[in-house]
Design a protein that fits this description.
The protein is an alpha+beta fold. It is built from four helices and seven strands. A seven-stranded antiparallel β-sheet has the order 1-6-7-2-5-4-3.
Length: 159
């Protein structure tokens, strides 16, 4: 998987996005966070991208950690410089931002998910979303609404 072209936002280049999160969850709020990475992880992100599908954020000891996000090993790296592809990665958030989400995450059914990973000014950033899971009927409604919208767009193009 190669990195996507430049994003519509000035100075950002998308590495990966979590489309499954938008299908399975209602996104209530978003926030941007930095990620603590090793050197080979950054090189691997530039070359290979990453997978955010199973990722989530865990709060431990007053810090936020990105869990279960896979960054593949860097192909040109040596054996000793390689990283664990699924290791926990520390997120860089201000204390007030962390406190804002700590209280809301105690509420039942809410979780913090990575929605998008991107480069901004040569720094790796993660867009996190406060999310609540969708029920099956919510997913069906979303699919139905999307199909209706597509059909209307097709009809408008024919005219």
């Amino acid at each position: 998987m190669t990195a996507a072209p430049h994003d519509s936002r000035a100075g950002t280049k998308t590495i990966a996005s979590n489309r499954k999160a938008f299908h399975d969850f209602h996104i209530i709020d978003t926030i941007e966070a930095g990620v603590v990475l090793s050197g080979t992880e950054v090189k691997s992100l530039r070359a290979n991208g990453c997978s955010l599908v199973d990722g989530f954020v865990r709060l431990r000891g007053g810090e936020a950690w990105l869990v279960n996000v896979q960054i593949p090993p860097y192909q040109q790296g040596t054996f000793f410089s390689q990283h664990d592809p699924r290791r926990d990665r520390k997120l860089l958030l201000h204390t007030r931002e962390l406190n804002r989400f700590t209280g809301t995450l105690q509420e039942k059914g809410l979780t913090l998910l990575p929605l998008r990973m991107y480069f901004r000014r040569n720094r790796v950033k993660v867009e996190l979303g406060l999310a609540r899971g969708k029920k099956l009927y919510d997913k069906r409604e979303a699919i139905k609404a999307r199909e209706v919208r597509r059909e209307l767009e097709r009809a408008a193009r024919r005219r």
